[in-house]
């Protein structure tokens, strides 16, 4: 199975329509980098000071995977406990989930395990879950990240691999081996990433999509029986992006269908 980011190719939506769509939910403690990670994938950018997500956000991206065009409908949840009760609305019917933690904060790894237990109890049984340890740029040396980046070939975006001086070095609190072992025991995909440095970002999404059995891909509805890229979520975006929560992240709960 190929995992190269070469799998992600630009799409001309005027001439090509996605045949399949996938619902993906992002879960994890607040401030681990979920929104940054999603924006890195969909919009190819990174903002240092991001406002916390309130309720949930929604973004889509259509990409080619092997010989299929896949539209990924991504629900980005807020990590705060007060929004926990909303989470089932977002993982209900999801074929895929990313559960994220911050490698410099052990407590976020423990929270990620809680989310995984909840998903394994309550989400659809065939859901593909990726455990993602983000912010490795804070604790790993630039040379080791560069090495990993070369290994993963994840250098497809324009503003990537712009290594900052790491003034805010923090100690790693979650060992890669420990998280990888937990992921293997729990039948999860596992990655360490940096949204800031664009390390392994595309790889997470392509591997998740590749791991969804074809029979669980949802066909894109085609009104009138003709070709159309209209999705079940009525995404009006013509450039693969639909951020329902606006730039500052207002709440979408109740304003859109997350089913
Ligand atoms: N150093 C570093 N900071 C990151 C990374 N990803 C996100 N951040 C920062 O972490 C903070 C929280 O990010 P955000 O995406 O809002 O987290 P969320 O609450 O999980 O959605 C922001 O200040 C981001 O700039 C990363 O990979 N490395
Ligand atoms: Mg967020």
TrEMBL record:
<feature type="compositionally biased region" description="Low complexity">
    <location>
        <begin position="226"/>
        <end position="245"/>
    </location>
</feature>
<protein>
    <submittedName>
        <fullName>Putative rab GTPase Vps21/Ypt51</fullName>
    </submittedName>
</protein>
<dbReference type="GO" id="GO:0003924">
    <property type="term" value="F:GTPase activity"/>
</dbReference>
<dbReference type="Pfam" id="PF00071">
    <property type="entry name" value="Ras"/>
</dbReference>
<feature type="region of interest" description="Disordered">
    <location>
        <begin position="217"/>
        <end position="259"/>
    </location>
</feature>
<dbReference type="InterPro" id="IPR005225">
    <property type="entry name" value="Small_GTP-bd"/>
</dbReference>
<dbReference type="InterPro" id="IPR027417">
    <property type="entry name" value="P-loop_NTPase"/>
</dbReference>
<feature type="compositionally biased region" description="Basic and acidic residues">
    <location>
        <begin position="154"/>
        <end position="177"/>
    </location>
</feature>
<dbReference type="InterPro" id="IPR001806">
    <property type="entry name" value="Small_GTPase"/>
</dbReference>
<keyword id="KW-0547">Nucleotide-binding</keyword>
<dbReference type="GO" id="GO:0005525">
    <property type="term" value="F:GTP binding"/>
</dbReference>
<feature type="region of interest" description="Disordered">
    <location>
        <begin position="145"/>
        <end position="177"/>
    </location>
</feature>
């Amino acid at each position: 199975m190929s995992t190269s980011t070469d799998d992600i190719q630009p799409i001309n939506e005027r001439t090509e329509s996605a045949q399949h769509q996938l619902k993906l939910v992002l879960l994890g403690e607040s401030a681990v980098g979920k929104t940054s990670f999603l924006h890195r994938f969909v919009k190819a950018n990174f903002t240092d000071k991001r406002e916390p997500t309130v309720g949930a956000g929604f973004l889509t991206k259509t990409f080619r995977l092997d010989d299929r065009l896949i539209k990924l409908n991504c629900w980005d949840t807020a990590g705060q406990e007060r929004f926990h009760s909303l989470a089932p609305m977002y993982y209900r019917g999801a074929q895929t989930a990313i559960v994220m933690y911050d490698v410099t904060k052990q407590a976020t790894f423990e929270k990620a395990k809680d989310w995984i237990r909840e998903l394994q109890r309550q989400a659809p049984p065939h859901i593909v879950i990726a455990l993602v340890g983000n912010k490795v740029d804070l604790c790993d040396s630039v040379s080791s990240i560069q090495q990993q980046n070369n290994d993963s070939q994840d250098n497809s975006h324009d503003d990537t691999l712009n290594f900052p001086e790491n003034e805010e070095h923090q100690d790693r609190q979650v060992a890669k081996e420990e998280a990888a072992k937990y992921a293997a025991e729990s039948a999860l995909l596992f990655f360490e990433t940096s949204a800031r440095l664009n390390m392994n970002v595309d790889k997470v999404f392509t591997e998740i999509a590749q791991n969804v059995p074809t029979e669980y891909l949802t066909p894109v509805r085609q009104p009138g029986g003709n070709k159309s890229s209209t999705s079940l979520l009525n995404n009006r975006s013509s450039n693969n992006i639909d951020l329902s929560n606006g730039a500052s992240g207002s709440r979408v709960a109740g304003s859109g269908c997350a089913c």
